[in-house]
Amino acid sequence: MMDDFKNQKCLHKRYAFQIVLQTREMLQALPSLVDINVPEGKHFTVCGDVHGQFYDLLNIFELNGLPSEGNPYLFNGDFVDRGSFSLEIILTLFAFKCMCPSGIYLSRGNHESKSMNKIYGFEGEVRSKLSETFVELFAEVFCCLPLAHVINGKVFVVHGGLFSVDGVKLSDIRAIDRFCEPPEEGLMCELLWSDPQPFPGRGPSKRGVGLSFGKDVTQRFLQDNNLDLVVRSHEVKDEGYEIEHDGKLITVFSAPNYCDQMGNKGAFIRFEAPDLKPNIVTFSAVPHPDVKPMAYANNFMRMFS
User: Fold this and answer.
1) What pLDDT does 275 receive?
2) Which of 19, 52, 102, 289 could hold 86 in an S-S bridge, CB 3.0 to 4.6 Å?
3) Is the pLDDT of residue 151 over 80?
4) pTM (2 d.p.)
5) pLDDT at residue 300 greater than cutoff 60
6) What mean pLDDT is predicted for residues 126-145?
7) Could you give the residue ranges of the DSSP H alpha helices within 106-201?
8) Residues in domain Serine/threonine specific protein phosphatases (predicted)?
9) Which residues have C-beta within 8 Å of that of residue 273, sequence separation ≥ 6?
């Protein structure tokens, strides 16, 4: 399937249905906060946004091996939109999830939502490569994606960031009823949309949704939940990653040369158990067929990209 995708072939609708429906069933059964256990001597890889850049995803697998029980991955949201190979990415990640559930974990990003998919290309791409029915089906499956993961009780991984109130416990995240489109405010919204800021306290978000939070907020959250580190994605970084908040927060972004114009590197993080020291690997973009980012976005957005 991946070879066919690489050669710009499509998957028959019938198999796409099978993959998506089976994935929906698996994701529905998961809690909103998933605990991941990495045994001593084993490793675990966290990737950030891949945003429809299928050929860069293949490069990650080339550099770090395919997902398997012995080589597990967490993809931390924003699989789709912007890049014009989003369908290839989502079917590949979902197929791995079906084939080897403990080899790959998937987190919801702010782009796994109807409103974003309408604007930034995924909806148009699904319509063009599969059908209208799949647009609805993907929207439904995205509502089943877990919101956050905790590795060995120590590393908290979430797409966006932390909260507008203090005292949020992991149990509060577990209790979120996530089976919906992301709300405009509250814990679920903030998990998907928030960003760190370099100064203490909290401030409004430059995105108009969620908030920005300082290192004191990060430290308090880690203390309250007996955690060591926050890993998040959601923002393009020149080097593919950035370490902030006195080393307690790492942003990882895995779409190099984002939108074919940012010139950034991509990165992923390998954690080795038991000490879970983050080992960051960076990589550059690889060539892809001449289909521009946002090729399937609605025309209004194309004008601005």
Assistant:
1) 97
2) 52
3) yes
4) 0.97
5) no
6) 97
7) 114-120, 122-129, 132-142, 170-174, 187-193
8) 11-287
9) 38, 39, 40, 41, 42, 43, 44, 152
